[in-house]
Amino acid sequence: MNDLLQEFWRACDEVADRVVAALDEAAFSLEIALDEAMVDLLELAEPLVASCEVVGESVTQSVQPIADGHSACVGCRHYHGQVYGETMLVCAMYPYGPEAPSCKDWASTWEHLGNHFRSSQ
User: Fold this and answer.
1) What's the chain look like in SS3?
2) pLDDT digits over 108-120, tens only?
3) Over the range 37-63, which residues count as b (16 or more CB within 10 Å of their CB) and which as e?
4) Distance of CA 18 to the CA centre of its chain
């Protein structure tokens, strides 16, 4: 009976070894497939990320001028709004912002955004 029991456990160990080997092989194959899928997904995501960055810039150009007190610049694609030292550069044409309540050089950041999406298709 002891021999029969030992033979049983030896067979169980052999089956377990085969199962572990098969699972290791499957895990390796799955890892390769997932790596390839991840590369494909990252390639697909690149244009989306770029578009999100462009939209983010446009939103900033629409919201930030309000906070900075330059209402004539809201939504203008020329708006820069960065501080250098202690001086804010509003835009290249009007470094300190336009003096009038409206700006003759105003250009829509959203129109520029539409051009970006049309050119990327």
Assistant:
1) CHHHHHHHHHHHHHHHHHHHHHHHHHHHHHHHHHHHHHHHHHHHHHHHHHHHHHHHHHHHHHHHHHHHCCHHHCCECCCCCEEECCEEECCCCCCCCCCCCCCCCCCEHHHHHHHHHHHCC
2) 877 755 555 555 5
3) eeeeeeeeeeeeeeeeebeebbeebbe
4) 43
Question: What is the pLDDT confidence band of residue 31, given thresholds at 50, 70 and 90?
Answer: very high
Count CA within 13 A, CB hemisphere, residue 1: 0
Give the pLDDT score at 35.
93
Q: What are the sequence ranges of the domains in the chain?
A: 2-119
Q: State if pTM tops 0.85.
A: no
pLDDT band at 101 (very low <50, low <70, confident <90, very high): confident
Residue percentage of the chain with pLDDT more than 90: 37
Tokens of 109: 């950041």
DSSP 72: G
